[in-house]
Design brief:
alpha/beta, Pyruvate Kinase, Chain: A, domain 1, 2 domains, five-stranded mixed beta sheet
Length: 284
């Protein structure tokens, strides 16, 4: 059994750690409230863009556009959104595993990393990170999404990549976050299954292709922006849950150490009494 001094030292150390995890939980909870509101506010914009593209594609049979055409190549680009810090449970590793374990990933895959943890995770597995945007996570703005979107479009239109995926974490609730891998380019009509009014007639000026050329980049930017907001909210939710679990575990450890401390103290007192009684008897 450990000595009383060792048990006391360990108990003090765990108590100090518990105070830190409790403070981190409170900070994550406060940040989560703001991030949750912002994430939910981006969804109507995305749904509107999604519905608009669905309406166009449903009424433009045979429309041609580079973003709609499948390519024979297998050069994949992954935009991975994680966090800049750890202590968030499996939040970062879950997103990284989606990319590493993707059935279509090749040795020449390219990565645009938003978040230091995701970049480090993939670099250790020899997957090429071509650019990073870690500062975006401090306060996600639509302008950042436009910048990342334009970088993706340049790579795609220059035939440097054939398929584009986004790996992020979808925020469902304060306790539930789901890592997702979404293919964004090329755009497939099957992915737009909204029920639209087939009787309505739409006219496109100057042409459906020109309209799609304006709408599809905005669609890509809206996906990136929404994924950023969802991921930030998920990060705070995951960190809050992780720190809550760590705080509870610390409480359990402190209770066990308190029991060990009391037993060790009682054993020491009993030993002292035994020695005193034995010494008194020896003097008689």
């Amino acid at each position: 059994m450990a000595s009383i001094r060792e048990i006391k030292r360990r108990k003090i150390s765990i108590t100090s750690t518990q105070q830190i995890t409790k403070a981190m939980k409170l900070v994550a909870t406060a940040k989560l409230q703001r991030a949750k509101v912002e994430a939910e506010a981006t969804r109507p914009y995305f749904h509107t863009i999604h519905k608009t593209i669905s309406s166009i594609l449903s009424q433009c049979i045979g429309v041609s556009h580079p973003f709609l055409e499948d390519r024979e190549g297998e050069k994949n680009l992954y935009v991975i959104i994680t966090s800049n810090r750890g202590l968030a449970g499996g939040y970062n590793s879950n997103v990284g595993k989606l990319v590493v374990n993707h059935k279509d990933i090749k040795s020449d895959a390219k990565i645009i990393a938003v978040g230091k943890r995701g970049a480090d995770y993939l670099k250790k597995r020899d997957i090429k990170v071509i650019s990073t945007h870690h500062e975006v996570l401090d306060k996600p703005k639509y302008a950042y999404a436009l910048t990342i979107g334009q970088e993706i479009l340049d790579l795609y239109l220059n035939n440097e990549v054939d398929n584009v995926y986004i790996a992020y974490t979808h925020f469902q609730s304060m306790l539930v976050q789901e890592a997702k891998l979404m293919k964004v380019i090329p755009v497939h009509k099957d992915e737009f299954d909204d029920k639209t009014d087939s009787t309505s007639v739409m006219s496109f000026e100057p042409s459906p292709e020109e309209v799609l050329a304006q709408i599809l980049p905005k669609y890509l930017s809206s996906i990136i922006y929404g994924a950023l907001k969802e991921s930030v909210a998920s990060e705070h939710g995951a960190r809050m849950t992780a720190m809550d679990a760590a705080t509870n575990n610390a409480s359990d450890m402190i209770d066990k150490l308190s029991l060990q401390y009391n037993r060790a103290r009682q054993s020491a007192i009993t030993q002292e009494i035994t020695e005193i009684v034995g010494g008194a008897e020896a003097l008689q």
